[in-house]
Amino acid sequence: MGKFTLGSTKEEVFEMLPEGNIKVTQLGAKKLCVVRKGEEVYAFEQLCPHRGAPLKDGHINGYGEVICALHSYRFDMKTGQLKSGGSCGDLEVYQTHLTDSGLEIMV
Ligand code: FES
C-alpha cells in the first residue's frame, strides 16, 4: 500500500475537485475515481464491480452513493457497500485524508 498526495493546499484540492463531480485520477498503477462533498473526499475503484462500466459516467446522490450509469446499481462511496442492484461484489474504496497540505489517498 502506498500513500499519494494530490495538491499542496486544501484550496488547491477544492479547485481540482469541484463538489459532486466524479474525477478520475491515476495513482501509481491504479486509476480511481475521486469525489468531494464539502470537506469529505471519497476515493473508489473506477470500474463498476457489476459489469465494469466506468463509474465516472455515473452520478452521485444525496446519500453519499455513486450510481452506475449502466444498470443503476448504487454503492456507498465511503464503505463500498452495494446498496441496490442485483448481485455483485462491493466497490473497492480507498482511505482519504484532507489536510492543509493536500489530499492524502492510501492505495
Ligand atoms: S455495470 Fe454498473 S451496474 Fe451494471
Structure, described:
There is one protein chain. The chain has one helix at about 10-15, and strands at about 5, 25, 30-35, 40-45, 60, 65, 75, 80-85, 95, 95-100, 100-105. With about 110 residues, it is mainly β. The protein has a single domain (about 5-105), classed as Rieske [2Fe-2S] iron-sulphur domain (Rieske Iron-sulfur Protein, 3-layer Sandwich), CATH 2.102.10. A four-stranded antiparallel β-sheet has the order 2-3-4-9, with no helix packed on it. It starts with a strand and ends with a strand. Bound molecules: FE2/S2 (inorganic) cluster.
Quick take:
The chain has 107 residues and is mainly beta.
What does the secondary structure layout of this molecule look like, with pairings?
Layout: E1 3-6, H1 10-16, E2 23-27, E3 30-37, E4 40-45, E5 59-60, E6 65-67, E7 74-76, E8 82-84, E9 93-94, E10 96-99, E11 102-106
Antiparallel strand pairs: 1-11, 2-3, 3-4, 4-9, 5-6, 6-7, 7-8, 10-11
Number of domains: 1
What is the H/E string? EHEEEEEEEEEE
**Cross-sheet strand order for the largest sheet:** 2-3-4-9
- CATH 4th-level superfamily: Rieske [2Fe-2S] iron-sulphur domain
Average pLDDT for all residues:
96
CATH architecture level-2 label: 3-layer Sandwich
Query: What's the Cα radius of gyration?
Result: 13 Å
The total beta strand count reads: 11
Q: What hetero molecules are bound to the protein chains? A: FE2/S2 (inorganic) cluster
The CATH topology annotation reads as: Rieske Iron-sulfur Protein
Task: Indicate the proportion of strand residues.
Answer: 35-45%
- SS-based structural class? mainly beta
Q: For the record, what CATH class applies?
A: Mainly Beta
Could you describe the largest sheet, including whether it forms a barrel?
A: 4 strands, antiparallel
Low-confidence blocks of residues: none
Instruction: Count up the helices.
Output: 1
Q: What percentage of residues falls in helices of 4 or more residues?
A: under 10%
Coarse morphology: globular
Whole-Å distance between the termini?
5 Å
